[in-house]
Amino acid sequence: MNLICSASNKATSKELERVDNLFFSYANGSSGMIDPEGIETLCSDMEVDHTDEEWRRGLRALRADTVHKIKKALPELEKEEPSTFVEFYSYAFQYCLTEEKQKSIDIESICELLDLVSGTQFHAQVDLFVEYLKAQNDYKVINMDQWMGFSRFCNEISFPDLSSYDPNLAGPLILDNFVEWLEAKQS
Question: What's its job (predicted)?
Answer without folding.
Answer: Neddylation of cullins play an essential role in the regulation of SCF-type complexes activity.
